[in-house]
Amino acid sequence: MKTVPILHTMRRPNSRGSLARSFLLRRPARSLAGRMLLLVAAVTLLASCKKPPAGPAAAVPEVTVMTVVQQDTPVDFEFTAQTQSSREVEIRARVDGFLDKRVYTEGQLVRPGQILFLMDPKPFQAALQTAKGELAQQQARLYVTKANLARVVPLAAQNALSKKDLDDATGNERQAEAAVIAAQGQVETAELNLSYTTIKSPLAGLSSFARQQDGSYVTAAATGLLTYIYQLDPMWVNFSISENELLGYRDQQAKGRLKFPANQSFEVTVVLADGSVFPQRGQINFANPAFDTKTGTFLVRASFANPQGTLRPGQFVRALVSGAVRPNAILVPQRAVLQGAKSHFVWVVDSDSKAHQRVVETGDWHGDDWFISDGLKPGDRVVVDGAIRVVADTPLKITGAPSAPASQPAAASQPAAASLPPGGPQHLAARESGQPVTK
């Protein structure tokens, strides 16, 4: 069978469709039915090479939106603090001698007047006897001088004795009286030294371990420290504030961003190491009038009732100082604030449900929220949940309010900043020192 040349003038195929047509035209001539079958196959091949249809349009982001409001917000200031006994007493030996016995249980609570240590009393008993003997001698001498003076006085009045004899008798009597007084002092000193061999607790508190063991020779000057007694109720909590923090909060107070309680009556809460809150609330009772030149910090002390002895001296705790308020504050959840190349920003939704970037100035944290110092005004609608999926000037699908309220209770919130506001410590220090209070 001969090949029938068809369309010798066709150009070289350059696509899948052209390749199919070329294949069809170069096939040997067949019957009409065969050619039709080939044509159908070519059309099917061309249809299979078409571009697939485009996918569905991108979904509209679903977001939650909050409306910005201004409200007075209580804030706490958090500090790292340490507990201190309100009376920390050193128990010392007041005389030199051998330590006979420790009669208290180390680490236990002790009562006022409870015996803690006993020293060897025998040398002090002997010294007391000697002092009493000296006193008896001086008293006998005084008796003699008094009797002698009683005889001299009438004789001198009759000019039977010279005036010098009268003066000598009078002087001897007075010397004997002074000697008796000195001897009585020696007896009292010996009695005191003997009493010092029984060492007692001057207060109720928690006892420490013994620094000296039974049988040790202790001296009052060098090795006289025997133990400590710590009073547990009340307990002090000390914390420090840096100068920069005070200046920063003073500036916020001047701008009206902070307001402090009347009479600077701040309330202090203690959070223990395990996160539990100490049930008693404390009050600031002292502020050092001067900064520590070594650390550049300002010492503040709060007093807590501690009837159960829960707080112990030396514990590291967190002190939350309450009472300050941020007036007309704007709070935005932290997840609504995004970090841009140069600043923080939020997505603000307009009346057409389209989002626009708004640069904001952030302040302190407040629980799960952020104080916004500048950039937002009441009535603005801010994207909270889903902010990361938002595209500028793109319609949004608003599904409702944020999953959590914008503001949290102050007691459960994170501190606004690790600093006590200015004014409070200075005023307290001024009251302590009697100086006038200045702003």
TrEMBL record:
Gene Ontology process terms (BP): response to antibiotic
Protein's name in the database: Multidrug export protein AcrE
Family: Belongs to the membrane fusion protein (MFP) (TC 8.A.1) family.
Compartment(s): Cell envelope
Gene label: acrE_1
Lineage of producing organism: Bacteria, Pseudomonadati, Pseudomonadota, Betaproteobacteria, Burkholderiales
Main subcellular localisation: other
Composition bias type Low complexity, residue spans: 400-421
Residue span(s) of domain Multidrug resistance protein MdtA-like beta-barrel: 234-321
GO molecular function: transmembrane transporter activity
GO annotations of cellular component type: plasma membrane
A Pfam match: Beta-barrel_RND
Organism of this sequence: Paraburkholderia domus
Residue span, Multidrug resistance protein MdtA-like barrel-sandwich hybrid domain: 87-223
Domain Multidrug resistance protein MdtA-like C-terminal permuted SH3: 328-387
Domain Multidrug resistance protein MdtA-like alpha-helical hairpin: 128-197
Chain segments carrying region Disordered: 399-439
